Amino acid sequence: MDSEGGKMSSTESQSVSPRSLHVLIVGGSICGLFAGIIMKRLGYTVRILEHNPASVLPAYGSGIVSGLSVQEFFRDATHPINQSAQRAVSGRP
């Protein structure tokens, strides 16, 4: 960085590889987890922090709608989807 704490020069930015950088994500929501997957795939060391233990959280994500391309992404991800359901517009299976 420059002496005033500004942006890295092009020489500095080229010498930094993702493997040497660590990413901290605060919040284990679907967005935080998704960001973690992407950053991990890019080679970063990722740590995700969540304030609430999973055992006390309600299942807010149980109604998320995703298309086939999203399902394929998560199937190929580090932690694939374990269960999926298709529902009609009426909301009934």
UniProtKB/TrEMBL annotation:
The chain crosses the membrane at residues 20-39. Keywords: Membrane, Transmembrane, Transmembrane helix. The keyword Transmembrane applies. SUPFAM superfamilies: FAD/NAD(P)-binding domain (SSF51905). It comes from the Eukaryota. This is FAD-binding domain-containing protein.
